Amino acid sequence: MVVRLGGYARISLDKDGEELGVERQRRDYRQVAGVRPGWEVVRDYVDNDVSAFKRNVIRPEFERLLIDLQSGVIDGVIAYDLDRLARQPRDLERLIDVFEERPKLVFCTITNDIDLSTSDGRTMARVMVAFANKASADTGRRVARKHRELADSGKNGGGFPPFGWKADRVTVDPEQAELITEAHDALLAGTRLSTITTEWQEKGVRTSRKTGKPITRVAVKGILTNPRLAGFRAVKGKKHVGSDGKPVMGVWEPICTPDKLDAVVAVLEGVKAQYKTNKLSNNHKYLLSGILRCSECGTRMMANMRSSWTEGSKGSRFTYRCPAAKDGGCGKVSRAGEPLDLHIIDLVHEAEAKLKAPTSESAEWPQAARLAEVEQEISELISAMNGKRISAATAIAMLEPLEKERDELGYERDRYTIEQVENSAATVALPDEFERLPLERQRAVVMKHIKAIVVRPAGRGARKFNPDLLEVVWAA
């Protein structure tokens, strides 16, 4: 009679992603199964680079193993060691529940002789997992303390090299740093994070984890908002604050300034949208959507692809239209999209040509000195409280108004920085550079010069584009 076994292999950390650890476990338990009469490993359940100690981690293959044991797909399980299967008592109890329901199931580990189908075996397994859990908890405390000491001193921790630096974690990687700088400038100029993510994917950019998979939007956001970009020591993606109340600075080379990083974070967290209520969203597929207004009712005009248009057809592929009455417009005004776009781009060319070349230096934010004073006062209060020179109640009462002022000044600084970078980035050498910009950047350039474009009806039978039927409302 053949005993169909499921082999389980797991390792908590696989930095290189080569699966060498789990492969050794597979080789060992298959060798043992091969010398047992009738035993056959019909499936491997592998959780590579997955912790069994962390309570919030789900192990997909362990979950599938339990399901297959319960349903009778396999007749038992074989693993290198019990702690590969469970390091949390609750996971062991789930496994024991299955063996109590199906007492004929086979259980085997290479390093121990435990039988989960017997009371003694289950008791011994519980003791072993309890000790393994304690060992993991003790190790976790020691590692956490070590990382805290490293963070307090501004030194690098463990794990994979951060994106933007070489393997020594101190020297900047020029290619990756250039990607980050370009992405920061693009974000502050109006480019969406999804657009940057797509560009990085097309360039084949990968994180240091070497997963082989395309970089994700979440990963790009984490890279672009990493506090260490501005020289700060980070813990779990946040600035690490020392005992003096100040952010701890790291021992590596920074890639950007703190002000620029704060502005990028503000954009991604929605601060930009809060204060720029007078500007339109860049979530459009056409250059002038929402910028055009119907002269009959004043409603913003939107674009639609012409359903009859095919490759090789004459005329514009899309049309700007005033919405129908049911959608808040009058539906009386429309205009071919492509000639209208080209005409407005020509106007923007001329407006850009009249501008003076942008200076490389930007004016300093006028409230920078006051923000530095407030931050220094907050730091001194925290140090005095920690040193028992003033009571906690007194310190908190004095901190609250200072922290409020700091937050308000920080908000104003972020707004100022975004505007400075945006004004600089919106100036391009048209037309060649303009054509290569993503749509949201092109719209930013147009809206820098134009507040709105009023479109008048063309009349019955009109076919030729007539710029005289447009009234451009220029920005001040």
Key attributes of the depicted protein:
Hect, E3 ligase catalytic domain fold; three-stranded mixed sheet; Rossmann fold; 476 residues; alpha/beta
Architecture blueprint of SSEs:
Elements: E1 3-11, H1 20-35, E2 39-48, H2 60-71, E3 76-79, H3 82-85, H4 89-101, E4 106-109, H5 119-152, H6 174-188, H7 193-203, H8 217-224, E5 234-235, E6 238-239, H9 258-268, H10 271-275, E7 292-294, E8 302-305, E9 318-321, E10 334-336, H11 337-353, H12 368-386, H13 392-425, H14 432-436, H15 439-449, E11 450-455, E12 470-474
Parallel strand pairs: 1-2, 1-3, 3-4, 7-11
Antiparallel strand pairs: 5-6, 8-9, 9-10, 11-12
Helix pairs in contact: 4-5, 9-13, 12-13
* Cα end-to-end separation: 88 Å
Helix content: 40-55%
CATH superfamily of the largest domain: Resolvase, N-terminal catalytic domain
Structural class: alpha/beta
Sheet-strand content, in percent, reads: 5-15%
CATH topology of the largest domain: Rossmann fold
Unreliable sequence segments = 271-280
How many domains, as an integer? 4
- Number-wise, the strands total 12
Q: Supply the CATH class of the largest domain.
A: Alpha Beta
Count of alpha and pi helical runs: 15
Write down the overall geometry. extended
